[in-house]
Write a structure and sequence with these properties.
Shape: globular
Largest sheet: 6 strands, mixed
Structural class: alpha+beta
Length: about 280
Amino acid sequence: MSTATGHLRTALQLATSGLPVMPLRRGKIPVGNCPACAGSFCGDRPHMKAAGPCQCPAPCHGWAAATTDPAVLTSPAWARAWRHAEAVAYHPGGAGLTVVDLDTPDAVAWARQALPATMTVATTRGEHWIYQGAMRSVNGVREGVDLKSTMSYARWRGLGISPMAPLPDTIRALAVKNSAPARPVLSAAVPALAGGGECRHRSPAYLERGITMAEQRITTATSAIHHTVYRTFLAVLSTHGRCGCLTEAHVERLFTAAQAKGESLRHCTTAWTNARTALGM
């Protein structure tokens, strides 16, 4: 059995178990972006038509290419990628998992003291500790410790030992502690309509219901999170953005819901800006 055949067989087995998978080339690097997706347009730019999981016929854009669809994995478009693959990777967040990547002996020693036992997989330099539960991916939360979940990928290194434990608050706290500085105040001011910018909805309850529904739409999304966030921001701005009733508190609520789904501050800010631009605000 060739190496390519072996990697594909592994990928199909993992896909059957619910792990979105993708090929890695030498150096644990995903297959490069195609010309149409240069600059990560297919996954990182909500205003692009191809936003969300990559729609390229061949694997493209790292974690966004990961799939559980055997028809995609075995398609002719993916054949070349498997022929050149050095390993199989998976998108932990897509399967509701978080990988604590421990790259040094000191990091492993810290985990054994600080974290609850869970499924453990040996790596070249340390260990992967795998928990049930998805969260935002963050690198460098401690020396030699990365958190890989949503919008990230991990190399498949086989089945680990010990049963998988629920994702503990200890790890979620690491991500919060090491997140970007507090979000700057984001102005929601937009040009007023003719008539002085008076809110045309009259009732505060209408706005509150709209923001609540927007939060729910983001929170319940199970795929294409980038695209969902952008379309939700666009809908809120198109309905409430020109009458002056949106406040910074409303924007904060939308950003909080998006970040809870793994979106970074940069993605949220870009999506909001792109939605305003699309509406001419």
